[in-house]
Amino acid sequence: MWPAGRRRGSPSSSGVSRATVSKWIARFGAEGWAGLEDRSSRPHTIANRTVVEAAILALRAQVRRGAVYLAGELGLAASTVGRVLARHQVPHLSAIDPITGAEVRRRHSGIRYERPTRGICSTSMSRSWAGP
After folding, report:
1. What's residue 40's pLDDT?
2. Is 90 left (phi over 0), alpha (psi -120 to 50) or beta?
3. How confident is the model at residue 85 (pLDDT cuts 50, 70, 90)?
4. Angstrom distance (rounded) from CA 101 to CA 31
5. Neighbours of 60 (CB within 10 A)
6. How far apart are CA 78 and CA 70, in angstroms?
7. What angle do CA 37, 43, 45 make, to 5 degrees?
8. Which residues lie below 8 Å from residue 52, measured CB to CB, with a gap of 6+?
9. CB 3.0–4.6 Å: which of 13, 15, 27, 42 could bond 35 by disulfide?
């Protein structure tokens, strides 16, 4: 560890601010080499996320309109509203009944038509067109 007095070299000569160097020294003193690893700058929580999401979901249940309309009403970006609706698995407008709002069809049925054995085609060619 460095002595408590002056440290060698100036932070500005290495292109780093004095505050950053002090932060690194404090981290090294508290956590050792692990404290100098790269850290994410992403916030752990978003303060108003639940409030905004609740407003989006409540308005969608009330008016049954798309993300662009909801975004205009709430003063948000349409991409944000669309992402919230997708996160909460709200069905697309094409998949719900316009009057009741109940889900009437799914986008993917999950049922596939498959042959019992491999290699069976729906059309059979008994002779090649290229010749014998």
Report:
1. 87
2. beta
3. very high
4. 55
5. 21
6. 8
7. 135
8. 74, 76, 80, 84
9. 27
